[in-house]
Write a structure and sequence with these properties.
This protein is an all-alpha fold. The protein has two domains: about 1-135, no CATH class; about 135-195, no CATH class. About 70% of the residues lie in helices and about 0% in strands. It has helices spanning about 5-15, 20-40, 45-60, 75-95, 110-115, 115-130, 135-145, 150-160, 165-185. Helix 8 crosses helix 9 (about 165-185). The protein is elongated.
Length: about 200
């Protein structure tokens, strides 16, 4: 019965890889991952990935002898999942930012405390995604390759462009087209500031 499992018992069960505790964790924590992902442009597959990754972070964190749960397990897991989903969204939108954001499980407590800032960043990323997915498939593919730091020579070959110069020009055009779409969206004007 689920009500017999306290947070401490579930954490210990996870450490011991107890199958009953893991089943309970999946059942109890699935709605937490789903609420974050589905509110932020994700699908069912994303929910499963975030849940799995979140449980791995929880396991890794709980294996530290100094670890003590300072909040409820659901609250802590919410912060973990939010951090994971934020990292995924930022990776996709990275080329629109001046700086790359490096997020890892050691920052969970920090990002949990900075909840408002994180919400604002997620809202920006949702706007970027909304307009990104309205681009042509070629522009999406080109910008994804660029975001993943694929060399321009390889991008040109992958996209079937005649040379690196054309790949660079197309990347510039796609990126600027995306920026203009975002800048012209009245919903984005409150969230974003451009130089």
């Amino acid at each position: 019965m689920i009500w017999l499992y306290t947070d401490a018992v579930l954490i210990e069960g996870l450490r011991q890889q107890d199958s009953n505790c893991i089943k309970v964790l999946y059942k109890e924590l699935y709605p937490v991952a789903r609420s974050i992902v589905e509110r932020n442009s994700g699908n069912q597959e994303d929910v499963k990935d975030v849940l799995q990754d979140g449980l791995m972070v929880l396991l890794k964190t709980s294996m530290n002898p100094a670890f003590t749960l300072q909040s409820s397990l659901k609250t802590f897991f919410f912060a973990i999942c939010k951090n994971i989903w934020r990292q995924r969204l930022e990776r996709k939108a990275r080329f629109l930012y001046q700086n790359d954001f490096e997020v890892n499980e050691e920052q969970v407590e920090y990002t949990f405390e900075e909840n408002e800032l994180m919400e604002e960043n997620l809202e920006k990323i949702r706007m970027y995604q909304l307009h990104f997915f309205e681009l042509s498939k070629d522009c999406q593919k080109l910008l994804e390759l660029f975001c993943n730091k694929v060399p321009l020579k390889k991008i040109a070959a992958t996209m079937g462009f005649k040379d690196v110069k054309y790949a660079k020009t197309r990347k510039y055009m796609c990126k600027n087209f995306l920026r203009k779409k975002i800048m012209n969206d009245p919903r984005c004007k409150d969230l974003l500031s451009y130089e």
